[in-house]
Amino acid sequence: MARFPSARPADRFRASGSKRLFPYLFTAVFAACVVFSVREAQVDPRVFLEGDALGNVAKFVRGMFPPKLDVEFLGLMAGPAIETVQISVMGTAIAIALGIPLGLLATSSLTWRGVLHERTSRTGRWLLGVVPYAASRAVLSVFRSIPEYVWAFMFVRAVGLGPFPGVLAIGVAYGGMLGKVYSEILENVSPRPLETLHAAGASRVGVILYGLVPQALPNVIAYTLYRWECAIRASAILGFVGAGGLGQQIELSMRMFQFDEVLTLLAILFALVASVDFISGRIRGWVA
Amino acid sequence: MARGAVARPGRAAPLLVGVGFAALLAWSWHGTAVDLPGLFGGEGLRQVATYVVKLFPPDLSAGAWRDAATGAVETFAISLIGSLLAVCVGLPLSLLATRTLLYRGILFEARRPGPGARAVRVALYAAGKAVLNLLRTIPEIVWALIFVFMVGLGPFPGVLALGFHTGGVLGKLFGEVLEDVDPAPLEALQATGASRFAILVYGVLPQALPQFVSYALYRWEVNIRAAAMMGFVGAGGLGQRIHIAISLFQEHQLMTLILAIYAIVTLVDALSAFLRARLV
After folding, report:
1. What's the whole-model pTM score?
2. Which of A62, B85, B221, B277 has its CA 20 to 30 A from that of A78?
3. With a cut of 0.90, is the ipTM above it?
4. Which superfamily, per CATH, for A74-287?
C-alpha cells in the first residue's frame, strides 16, 4: 500500500467519511454550477441559425481577403507595432521593480520564519517581520486581482491617453503576479545550504546572497520571461481602452468594418508574439 | 526540452543578453514616453491622488450592490462556461496536434501505416496545429468583437470568445502533455497486444489527465479576468458596467464594481487552488 500510492482520488479519500463523499459532492455542485451558468450566460447555439449570423461570418471572412498590404498602410502600422513591443518591455521592467521588493517582503522565510530568524526576539519578529509580510501580501493581492485593463482604464483617467498608462497598468498588475511567484520560489528553495551557511557563521546577508539567490535565480528569470510573453499579448489588448499600441488600431479597423486591415494587423501581432516567444524561449533554455 | 537539444552559449552570452536587454529597455523607455519623474513629482502625483480620492467611498446603496452582484455572477458564468467550452474545443484538437498519437513513436512501431496513410496523418497533424495557432493568435477581445458582430450583444458572444481563444491555448498545452507521457506503460500495453485505441485510453489519457485538469483550472483563473473584460465590447458582465461607470464619471459606483471584481477573482483563484489540491 505504502509503496504504491494510488493516483485515484477514490482511494486517496477512503480515509474518512467526509472525504469519501467529496467526489459525489463535487460532481453535484459542479453540475448545478454549470446548469445555472448556462442560463446566466444566455448560451443559445440557435442564434447561429437565426437571422444573418452565418451571412455575417461570410461577410467578415470575405472582407478579410485580400489582406491590406500596401506600403502606406504597413508604414502607418509600424509605429503602433513598435509601441506594442515597447509597452511590453517597459511594463515588465516596472513589474520587476515592483515585484522584487514586495516579493522579498512577502517571503516568510526572509521576514520572520526559519533559519535566518532563530535569534530574533519575539517582538522584533512581529514588528519587523510579520507586519510588513502581511502588508505586502495584501498589496500584491490587490495588484494582481484587479485585471490589467481595469488598471489601464484608471491610469488613462489619471495620466491621460497614450502608451504610458498601458505601461503602468502592465507594471502594476504583473508586479502583483511576479511578487507572488517570486515569494513562492524563494520559500521553496532547499533549506539545507542556508543552514550550512548559517552554521558556518555566515551573516544574514551572506546566507541570502550565497544560499538563497543562486538557488532561486534560474526560476525567477524563467518566470519573468514567461510574464514578458504574456505582457506582449496584454499590451496589444490594452489599446482597446485607449492605451496605445496595435489594439487601438485593431479596434478602429473593426469598428470601420475594414476587415482586410484587421487581418494584416492580426498577422503583425502574430509575428510579434512569435518572436518574443522565440527569444524568451531561447533564453529560458539557457538558464533552466 | 532535453538539455542537449539547446545550444549552450559561450561565456560572453550572458553579457550580450544583458547588454541587449539594457538597450531594449532604453529604447522602450524613450518610445513609451514614460515619465516617472513627472508621475511622482508634483503635478502627476496630485492628479492620481485626486482621482483616487474621488473613488472613495464606494457606493454601497442597495441598487449599486445589486448591480455589482448581478455583474459578478454573470462574469462568473461566462468564465465557467467559456472554460468548459475551451476544454471541449481544445481536447479533440490536441489529439490531432500530437505527433506521437498520429504518426510516430511507440504506437506505430509494430503496425506502420503505409506511405499514403502516413501522408494523410502528417497532414492531419499539420492541420490540427494550424487551427490551434489560429485560435490562439487572435486575442479573446478580438474574438468577442467578431462574435458580437455575428450573434449580437450579450454574454453569449463572450462565452464563445473565451472558448475559442482558450481552446487554442489548452489544445497546445494538452498536446505537449500528451507527447511527454511516460512511454513505459504504453510499451507494456503494446506487448499485451492492445490496439492503438486501447493504448490511448488505458495508457496515455490516465497519465495526462491530472495535468489536463491542472491546466484547465489555471486557464479558468485567467478567464475570470478576461471574462470581466469582455464587457468592454458589449459582451456583458462586470466589464460592461465598469465601462459605463467610467464613461459617465460615476466614480463611487466604479469603486463598488472594482471591489466586486476583486472579490470574484479572489474567489475563483481560491476555488481553483482548492480543486487543484483535491483533484490533481
Report:
1. 0.82
2. A62
3. no
4. MetI-like (1.10.3720.10)
